[in-house]
Amino acid sequence: MLELPQIYAENIHRWLPELLYYSLMTLKIGFFSFIVAVVFGILVALCRVSKNGLVRTLAIWFIEIGRGLPIVVILYIIYFVPPQLFPGLNWTWFSDFTGAVLGLGIHGGAILAEVFRSGIEALHKGQREAAMSLGMTPAKSMVYIILPQATRIVLPPVGNYAIGLLKDTSLCTLIGVNEIMNGAKSIAFSDYQPMAVFILVAGIYFAMSYPLSLLVRALERRLRTAQ
Hints:
Elements: H1 4-48, H2 53-68, H3 71-85, H4 96-121, H5 125-133, H6 138-168, H7 180-191, H8 194-226
Helix pairs in contact: 1-2, 1-4, 1-6, 1-7, 1-8, 2-4, 3-4, 4-6, 5-6, 6-8, 7-8
């Protein structure tokens, strides 16, 4: 530990630019995975509260399987299985980045589906009944009445999920994505300085996630004062 200042003084000019370059890929994966997770989460949540028994059952199975499998297993299945099941198709478009986004997004969709469902069901049923008594269809009452109010309820847990997702992107190194952990491993083992490199990576992760933490806290305070 006492040698760390000297190690950083000698190597920081090489390590930091490279790690920051890889961190852009980490942020990119996190952003697009979050979008996929939110879209999946909303769609599955709507299916989860559907009156159609088959649709509701399929949504429950998606949630249970998505939440029950480790993220690494989902990443491996998404990235390696489709090309083997359909070898005749052209899979040149299916990169490790695409597999990472889909894998994290599907897993996140299962988690957020339950978050969105709880937000929808937290609202009194009388609001939907009142909207339909005014002539709204069930779909319109969901879009214009229920979902806007449910959004306020689910914002804090969705923000906390986004913070966790940013850290989960480190698992994408297992399918070969050149994100920050993959780059850190290459630097650490080529320069034989794993402790110094990974401490620096920890600092970069903190610098990326802490602003999200502040944003989530600010949203929570604003929602509490607005109630």
